Each structure stands twice: as structure tokens, then as C-alpha cells.
Amino acid sequence: MAKPRILVTRKLTDPVEARLAADYDATFNPSDRPMPAAALAAAMRDHDALVPTVSDRIAAGMLQVEGRRVRMIANVGVGFSNIDIEAARDAGIAVSNTPDVLTDATADTAMLLILSATRRAFAAEKMLRAGRWGGFSIVDGLGTSIQGKVLGIIGMGRIGRATARRAAAGFGMEIVYYNRSPVGELGFEARRLESIEAVMAAADVVSVHVPGGGAAPLVTAAHIACMKRSAYLINTARGDSVDQDALIEALARGRIAGAGLDVFAEEPEVPKALREMETVTLLPHIGSATQEVRTAMGHVAADNLDAFFAGKELPCRVV
């Protein structure tokens, strides 16, 4: 019996690629560059499944291509805003993701950005690397301590909880949060507020942990306007979860103190204005970028493929 034919759109770690090569008629992308939309559309006709990442835009037209053969999309990532989910559902295409395995790594990255932004680490390192450091000073380059400060979490899901837990237990931060639905026992002290606006106004640091892919950002210009002038905004969720233009304006005008960003609205494009700001720490979407986590993500995607082609329930079904 012929093996199912799959297309892996980006380079995965060696153990995952070895597993997929053994179990499937797999086509890989050794260049690790995003595939053109035309190539992805063509692949829909001659593969049984796609294994894309969050960098691959799977639009409705691609899912509705004439002669489509693909019946399964095993997305490598917890998010799936890169896929038109309604179009996939209408077409009868199964979609899965890879949750849980990247929770701790992404929460670690959120804390990295919180510390870097509040301690002005980028500006300090830039000064040192440029040979402009004149030696120790009591008053130069002062940042802000986070002990006893308020961390606002927008989206108290797995990653939001893990970030809040680290901030509370490790750094003595007070936690407030907004979540659209009630949450269960957190295991640490936290106050749920009634709106995003309330969290933005109360927090010294706001950390965003909500999905993107909506018609408009969930964190809007009006929300950012509620923040304290001394506050910082951290985003490790999706670039389009936050109104990026409004954030840039707020930073440029000094309406907030700084930001830490791992994601951007039009990746891999990062606005020049952000790249030039010393009050902003920027990372190239590395929230889950450890060898262990990226390998685990790939194996979860493979588990979903295995289940689909065996006629079993998907471990991480989205559609």
C-alpha cells in the first residue's frame, strides 16, 4: 500500500524529518524559505497532507483549488491564524496544531522580554558594543525594578498562566488579568478584572497572550491609550494581536515607557521605527525556539498525521 504523500513546507529538526521520511512519502523544503503561494496551491493537488508553520498563509482560495487532494493540515505551532479555518471546515479538511509543548519556553521568553525592557538591556548593550560605556555609574542607564509591580495578563490561557506564575513566584509581582471566559484554579494569587481597559490601566507591565488572525487587533489603540506612561507592553502571542501602528506611536510620543516584542504584524518585516527605538527589545519570533521544544512540536504534528491516516481521532484537532 502506498504511503500518504505529504509536503513539509519548512525545515524541521532532524529527528522529526527522519520520522516523517520513514513513515510517509514526504517532500521537504531544504531551503527553509517560505514557499510561494502558487507553489502551495499546486501542492494541494498532489499531496494528501500539508505540514505548514505559522509563516505559511493558507488562504481560502488555496483550500478551494480545483482538483484539491489535501485532506489534512498538520500545523506546526500552537497558533493557526495562518489558516482560513472556516474555509478548511467548509472543504472538509482536518486541521491540527501543536499546543502544550511550547508553553514553558514561550513563558520564559515573555519573562526575558519583561526583564530586558524594564532594565533597558538593549540600550545598555548597544552602548557597550559601540564602545561608549564610560564605566560604572550610580545614576546612568537606570531601569525599573519589577518586584512588587503589577503584571497585567491579557489572555489567561496556558502561556498566560505560566508567565504569571513565573512573575508572581519568582519576582514577587502582583497579577491582574483579563480573560473572555472564566478560568479555574490558578495556583497563585491573581485578580480578574472586567475589561482589557481595566488591566491596561492598572498594570506596570502588560503581557499579551491572545490569538491573532481576527479582522482587527484585540489590543487596540484605545486600549494602549489606557496604559500608564511608566508602563511596558510585552507581546509573545501574534503580531496582529496588537495594533502595531498605535504601539509605535505611543512609544514614539513617550506615552508608554517601552516594549518587548517577539512577534510582528507582517513578519518577517519589522518597521524601521521599532528597530530604531532604544526603549524596545526585539526578538525574531523565538518564543518556542529551543531544540527540545521545536522537536516536540514536530512530533506532535506527526502524531496528528498518524492519527488521521489511521482513521483515529486527532490528538490536537482544530477542525
UniProtKB/TrEMBL annotation:
Native species: Marinovum algicola
GO-annotated cellular components: cytosol
Keyword NAD: yes
Taxonomic placement: Bacteria, Pseudomonadati, Pseudomonadota, Alphaproteobacteria, Rhodobacterales
Domain D-isomer specific 2-hydroxyacid dehydrogenase NAD-binding: 112-287
MF (Gene Ontology): glyoxylate reductase (NADPH) activity; hydroxypyruvate reductase [NAD(P)H] activity; NAD binding
Keyword annotations from UniProtKB, A to Z: NAD, Oxidoreductase
InterPro entries per UniProt: D-isomer_2-hydroxyacid_DH, D-isomer_2_OHA_DH_cat_dom, D-isomer_DH_CS1, D-isomer_DH_NAD-bd, NAD(P)-bd_dom_sf
Domain D-isomer specific 2-hydroxyacid dehydrogenase catalytic, chain residue ranges per copy: 6-318
Name of the protein described by the UniProt record: Lactate dehydrogenase
Alphabetical list of Gene3D superfamilies matching this protein: NAD(P)-binding Rossmann-like Domain
Family stated for the protein in its record: Belongs to the D-isomer specific 2-hydroxyacid dehydrogenase family.
